[in-house]
Amino acid sequence: MTLEEVRNKYFEFFEKHGHALVPSALLTPENDPTTLFVGSGMQPLLPYLLGERHPKGVRIVNSQKAFRAEDIEEIGDNRHTTFFEMLGNWSLGDYFKEEQLPWFFEFLTSELGLSPDKLYVTVFAGDESNGIPKDEASVVIWKKLFKEAGIEASDVFIGSEEDGYKKGMKEGERIFYYDAKKNWWSRAGVPENMPVGEPGGPDSEVFYDFGTKHDKSFGEHCHPNCDCGRFVEIGNSVFMEYIKKEDGSFEKLAQKNVDFGGGLIRITAAANEDSDVFNVDVLNVIIEHISKLSGKSYLDAENKKSFRVIADHIRAAIFMIVDGVVPSNTDAGYFVRRLIRRAVRHMDKLGVDKETLHTVVAPVADVYKAQYPELLNKKTDIEREISLEEEKFRETLKKGLKQLEKAKDGKLSGKEAFVLFSTYGFPLELTLELAPELNIEVDVEGFKSEMVSHQELSRVGAEHKFKGGLSDGGEVTTMLHSATHLMLAGLRKYLGDGVHQAGSNITSERTRFDFTHPEKVDRETLDKVEGYVNDAIVDHAKMELIEMPKEEAKNSGVEGSFWEKYPDTVQVYTIVADDGTVWSRELCGGPHVKNTADIKGTFKITKEESSSAGVRRVKAVLQ
Ligand code: SER
After folding, report:
1. For residue 432, with 0-12 CB atoms within 10 Å meaning exposed, 13-18 middle and 19 or more buried, which class applies?
2. Which whole-number Å values give the CA distances from 63 to 39, 100, 167, 273, 274, in the listed order?
3. Which of 413, 560, 567, 588 is deepest in the core (most CB within 10 A)?
């Protein structure tokens, strides 16, 4: 089946059930300063979920364009894409579980012909601390649906994803209870992370079993939420009926909503019984086009990743440009730039070193012409933007490569790497990617210290550092100081080990924190970092202080900056949970809270900006 066939079947099915079809909103949200891109179907519909009347009524069906920036680096497997289309059906205070689950089941099995045998479902296990019960009603409905399809489906309590890997699944088990991390949906994630006034609710997901062999590198046993690729999520029915109150508790919304979202390309892949979404027509036309340009085959394992990155990135860039975003160094434009540049690098890897990416626009515009005629109407403009960006980047690459080739004896000093960055616009990431191809070793540590001295951070005095940048020793300041350690650990988790502290200043109002990172951090990543800190706070983890020789601390991987400013024996603060989870481990002079439970409030990153070349600055508060 083609993507359009599946889309049309879905629209027809829900129109038959009284839904009004509405067009996709733009990829860049209107009136929502908190995010650069629409990342879920519910964002544009938020006011109606909260009670405003939708002009088309209480039953809506749509497919929404979405982009998830956090997936950029992950592209390369058979099912993730940065740009995707989310099929959605919406009950705005109208029907609920009893209609939603049977409809989706019928759509999958009768309209698309998926075998019920290949479907596995998950439901919400409940959240005692917030007084939200487990979703037994959905389990009753699922059992009945499977029974009617001749399948005895038993339910089983899993809990967390980690528990899933431990417990695995037994014969007959088909309905799985997971905790809020997996089966609760809100824009901010789990209940603890939701701001006051945010709606959310339990959800029930459907997974398609592609029957591939479990890969133990993901965990001991396979289960529906395992990442090995056997099970792919194809739909999520969110029962959006709660709202967070001022006092942190949850209350029922005035209306019960259904927010269903299903990845259109994944559903198509399931209908085709082929787990590779890049074989679905809309991506496959790009793969075939690149195959012609490069003379390489997508079937060769060594080329697969490059084909996928190019196909994903160029399609995403095309959809951004048609929605009015052009390549630039800031905000949304920066992502278009990054997508095109990464695609160029992978074209190079396939041996196409000429400006050709714009030729991909024609097949994409053609395959999507029924749903997005604007792609054809604006084809020339889109081609021009892509062409200009590719040309500019190829020029930068050429100049940078020349510099790189000058590296003596296969070594690039920290200073040279820094000049490449500051003068030639070559991020360290790119230098590191090219270096092995040229047999060059890069002095990364040297680069970092160049960066630091460039910012004259060496001026920051030792005594000041020993106080961790704290302006006073007040209680709130101390809480914020411990939260700042958690934030650094979170930043390193989501942005990588290249992140180190480059400065900090903490008052009783807020923490201001500078760290090494070459580019803007998008809101979604900041949200994840916030989530990390807040998870650690609710985990009631202990703060342990130990003293050890500086060399030992350094060698055991303790995170720290400005090592040279510390004495031979140093203090290492570790934030560790009762079950042994290490949330943070850092060189520091204190002071800190004794337990993360002493950090009062919810941690919120309020600002992210550039501090100086290669250094970002965030401000965060406890509220
Ligand atoms: N809001 C849910 C999601 O994005 C379902 O649409 O997964």
Report:
1. middle
2. 13, 17, 36, 22, 22
3. 588
Closest C-alpha residue for ligand 1 atom 6: 261
Whether the Cβ atoms of residue 399 and residue 32 lie closer than 8 Å to each other = no
Q: Which atom of ligand 1 is nearest to the CA of 40?
A: 4
The token pair at 217 is 């590198």
Instruction: Give residue 550's pLDDT.
Output: 86
Question: What global pTM score does this model have?
Answer: 0.72
**Residue of 507, 526, 524 lying closest to 515 (CA atoms):** 526
Among protein residues, the one with the nearest Cα to ligand 1's atom 2 is 261
Q: Are 95 and 293 in contact (CB under 8 A)?
A: no
Residues with CB under 6 A from ligand 1: 40-42, 88, 185, 236, 238, 259-261
Cβ pair 246, 195 in contact under 8 A? no
Q: Return the pLDDT at 391.
A: 96
Which pLDDT score, from 0 to 100, does residue 388 have? 96
Angle at 174 between CA 14 and CA 268, to 5 degrees: 40
Q: Of ligand 1's atoms, which has the minimum distance to the CA of residue 236? A: 5
| CA-only gyration radius of the chain, Å | 26
- Using one digit for the tens of pLDDT, what is the confidence trace for 322-360? 999 999 877 788 889 989 999 999 999 999 999 999 999
**HEC profile for 170-195?**
CCCEEEEEECHHHHEECCCCCHHHCC
pLDDT (mean) for 281-306: 97
Domains and CATH numbers, the chain: 3-278 (3.30.930.10), 280-384 (no CATH), 405-466 (no CATH), 474-622 (3.30.980.10)
Which amino acid would we find at residue 275?
S
Contacts of 149 (CB under 8 A, 6+ apart): 109, 116
- pLDDT band, very low/low/confident/very high, at 424 (cuts 50, 70, 90): confident
- 3-state SS of 429-446 is HHHHHHHHHHCCEECHHH
State in Å: Cα 100 to ligand 1 middle: 14
Q: Quick check: 480 and 506 in contact, CB under 8 A?
A: yes
Range of lowest pLDDT (10-19, 299-308, 489-498, 501-510): 501-510
Distance from residue 204's CA to the centre of ligand 1 (Å): 11
